[in-house]
Amino acid sequence: MVKKILYTLINTISLLIIVAAVAVLCLVVFTPSGQAPQVLGYTMLRVTTGSMEPTYAIDTLIVVKKEAPSAIQEGDIISFYSSDPALDGAVNTHRVTAVEAQPDGSYTYRTKGDANNVEDAYEVRSNYLLGKVVASSLLLGKISRLVANPLIFVPVILVPLFAILLANLLRTIRLAGKIAKDEEQAAVREAIEELRKRQEAGQMPDSPKEQGEEPVSPEVQQGADGGHIVK
Question: Pick from 71, 75, 141, 146: most CB atoms within 10 A?
Answer without folding.
Answer: 141
